Batch of 2 targets.
Target 1
Amino acid sequence: MIRHLLELEELGVEGIQAILQLTDRFVEVGERAIPKVPALRGKTVANMFFEDSTRTRLSFDVAAKRLSADVLTFSASSSSLNKGESIRDSVETLEAMGINAIVVRHGSSGVPQQITRWVNEGISVINAGDGWHAHPTQGLLDAYTVCEHFRGPAGPAASLQGLHVGLVGDILHSRVARSDIQAYTALGATVTLIAPATLLPADISTWPVRVSQDLDQVLPTLDVLGLLRVQKERMVEGSIGSIREYIEEFSLTQRRVKLLSDTAVITHPGPVVRGVEVTGSVLDEYPRVLKNRQVSNGVAVRMAVLFLLLGSGAELA
Amino acid sequence: MPNRLVSYFFKGGEVVDQNGRRYENVAVSNGMIVKEPSDDATEIDINGCVISAGLVDLSVNFGEPGSEDVECIDSGSRAAARGGFTAVLNSSDIFPVLDSAPVLAEAERLFTKSVCEMRPSATITVGAKGLALAPLRELSAKGVRWFSDRGTIENKNLLRKAMEYSLSGSVISVRPQSGSLNGNGAMHEGKWSAILGLPGEPSISETSEVAAIIDLAHVTGARVHLDRISTAESVQLLREAKRNGIEITSSVTIQHLMFTDSDCVAYDPMYRADPPYRSDEDREALIVGVKDRTIDVVVSDHRPATAEAKELPFDQSVKGVAGIEATAALLMGSCGLDLEVALDALSWSPAKVAGFVNHGNLILPGNVANLTVFNPRISWKYESREQISLGRNNPYFEKMLTGRVIHTIYRGELVVTDSEVVI
């Protein structure tokens, strides 16, 4: 029984499979006329977002509410953090209000793990994205969505064995990439990273991945193309020459999309910067873009995580 | 610092100094080591212990003036004494930074509160900003021997001028770190920074500077010290430089002999350091560097901080450790070094490198009695509540350590006895 969700490594294959199996149930709940269950009635979930986020915060918000939990939202910009309050004091304040879980997003890697050292035993910490480190629920929902597309509902032993996933873009600064790699490879997929060396960490010798700098060559071999955002400030720091040059080599253009096999799918964690990592029309016209399905499944995955961590003993109606 | 007329007779211990090891009793009277104990000498049984020259720390910051909330000279120097140190060199990055004669005068006035010998270091450049030379010669004439900006000096021409301009007898000490190659690192760049998603400071940030500074030392003939090296490549460059007859010294912190980048795995800011803890290979090379005496000096790098400064996100937390009370135990008890090597790195060499003439000497009648008595076998728990230093940034809290300083004698007087400060 796990208490916190900080990253996926600690879950192991069976832990990931257990969450995906539970996700099947919540996908079904989401399709009901009244998509709400009383599983977490009386529990309180605090969303602590120290960094701007709309989609992840809303997704956790919806997930908690569909489980009938109460939700507190602590946003850094309107809180006393601006007046110099420490994270620890903020956490202890929320704790004193009687919460059961803290969902944390922070711009610095490791903050959710630091928070676990400050909270009582009754409180679970869920990482909603920390720095460049991890975004475990994104990794889970990406794996679930791909699994669902190719194999149907996850069931007790979800597997992505035999699938080839390519992740393109800014891997170095991407928590999504790190969690995707963990989720995909845990379930048996092969992962290839495609990026210029400046957008990869200096030493990934321990990562279970292949690396390529030639997107055209990799595309025909892929079952899943995972696009990642590229931020313009990377040019300023000299990680890429220009956006134009990046697009030339690494963007999914109309020409490149034709290199994909006729069963391959495209994923994107959002928000999309149209015209940079992908040509806008590709996203609109390609028949197997899973972007919106990822968002729907994101709610179900987060329900599964909250239920697993907080719902011990509760019946899932 | 009072110098009362007291006499002691340390019996049954093993003397270790530059002349080797021998079982010999040591008599102290009126501040000096003497041949025969006086009739009124207090006998102290040090069976099973080693008696050596007092330890010398070339990198501490005792807070005053400017950071009295994290440490004071009283607390810092008592902590040092408890750690076996009889002399320390205080960092120039006090507030205001020590870059002028008036600040020097104020620092020296404050230093009189110390229970061990305390010397100032001054900055190389005005305000440690790396733009214009500080009055090195004036400060030198007033007794400052050690000049350091604590950090790096990007402008190598200015650094060369400092080496040429400083008076002989001065040491120009530089922490080798490139301002442009450091990657704004929160930790060492390697497999762990990739996994943890933290910006990494690459080894070349240090080694490129080490190479440049060795060349400058060679060209100028100045006394140059490389402060707190951390990489295997730096050790190798220094080894070659020494082989080529270049006079350059260096230090490493005790922490860099204990920890590696893998210790950052739980994002505990206790393990954020400057320079960052590096790979296993680097740590091993540093220990070899101390063993073969390529690295002259081991420092505590005592940098006290508040608890809250170590509760910030890892990449924003303050760097460093306030561990001066554990340094000797760690080096002599946990690093697998011969006692002579450890004492050379903690006493004999630093005293020589920084010109502490009454420290690090032979245990001989006629020498000033600055001594440390160390029990190399005793096991003890480092209790946070018993620490003297006010710094809360200490990774050794509640850990079991092997070897402990039992007595510290400063100018013939017992400052620490049975591991407790008694003055």
Note: The mean pLDDT of chain B is 96.
Target 2
Amino acid sequence: MIDLVKSEWIKLHTVRVNYVLAIIAAAFPLVVVILVTALSRYPEERTGNDLVGIVNGTMVLSALLLGVVGALNLTSEYSHGTIRTTFAAVPQRANALLVKALVAVVATMTFAALTLLATYGIGSLILSGRNANLSLDGNGRTALMGLVILCALLSLLGYGLGLLIRNSAATVAVLVLWPLLLETIASVVLRAAGVDNPLPWLPYQSAFAMLNTDAANGDPSRLHGGLYLGSVALALIVFGIIVNERRDA
Amino acid sequence: MIEIQGLTKRFGRTLAVDSLSFQVHPGRVTGFLGPNGSGKSTSMRCMLALDRADAGTALFDGKPYTSIHRPLFQVGALLDAGYVHPGRSARNHLRSVAASNGIGSKRVDEVLALVGLTEVAKRRVGGYSLGMRQRLGLAAVLLGDPHTVILDEPANGLDPEGIRWIRDVLVHLASQGKTVLVSSHLLSEMAQMADDLVVIGMGRLIETSSVENFVNKHARQWVRVRSPQIDGLAQQLRIDGAMVTVVDPTAIEVTGVPAATIGEMAARHGAILHELSPLQGSLEDAFLEVTASTQEYRAQNPPVPTYTLPPNSPLPPPQGAPR
């Protein structure tokens, strides 16, 4: 198990594209938060939860990029044929695939948490210097943790899609189009079928409830959103592993 | 030892490997031969459980590949030198493979030195030539110093020095008692390094034997005779039932009669001999003979200039004789 973790960690951190995506994922929210907090009107009226809203709003793109890293981590193995090297070294495919997912999700959560801390920290430094009172309540802290979990779930979703699609471009396209196209279509269909609020039925969009700083105003709830997307991602991974056990590598 | 029993693999309606059975013995280099599309690579992938066989078993020292814990110590395989991430360095590629079986970085550096890639180990593999990738693939094979080695076309892309090097490596591994199965289209190389052969066509086993027996059984044998009195000698040989082909006005090639008999005949007729050479076809000739009916992809032969007898020659070339 430890050997597999070492192997997957080496694979993850020795490919340049992962660094490029990680730098973009970190730089985008940092730059936006610095600009917003530095140029904000009436900074003294900003609260900690306002800053959480800004940070989470910009880090959604980072979460999507981390989902892409999760997908590429696997699909690049198929596109370059290295999955055969992997399975030749570890013929127990389920073990290899589960450890790969585990390493990707732990790395994603660690990276997301560090980026979040840096982004929130710099934003709060700037706003504090402009006389803002940045008290952070429990909802704000939960929303920050929710973002880290969302990053992890999107990474798992990308990984699960990659297991089934096994092609980098197609997997990334489905991952990106899922919220923009698939769930939009699903929303229209659900409304046409008489569902007044289709949001709780849409796994990707309902997961954004985890970023909500106002718990009382949540429909779906944070727990519902997280569990729903998590269940979909895990189901894709389990199904993907079963399929990969049977298919030729 | 590798034991293949009834291995079968289908791709849709295509039967790629059809009830293939053979054994590969330790201490010998076994060549795995077959025309393009004969199922060699598919068979190798099935042995390693990379392709799921529809039937049959492949056992390594009695165990299926999937039940081997840390298989790099048991079986080293190079199926395609292209199975590398082009953005990763050779050293990191090997580190990731080695780590999965608990092999440390020290061994990675050792095998890089063994295959001569130490100088370029930190360069990205995307910039490597095919020959360098083959060397990298062989380094991965050697990581666990395995008992069994399986290589699919390892000499592809190698220069003559590299081809000789890989031949020496495989012969050395076999001399250490390891089981070596190698496929190659370089039959002259195979003739020099292989002890045994497994020949397949259209997914089926055609023959398994030692290289020597295979060539003796399937390659043509003939005698080249050169003499100033070649016309008379040729006529006498034809009368005795030999198949005679005219090579040039002073030389013939004779099939079906041993060199000693030809020499005695020449002595009886007072013919001077300038050459009397027993010749045998190569492994390539034997292979082409055996697999002629199983060639899936075959090009037309280009026109080959042939010697034309002078109008007054008494000896027309017999039909079907070797050129």
Note: Residues 2-217 of chain B form a domain with the Rossmann fold fold (CATH 3.40.50.300).
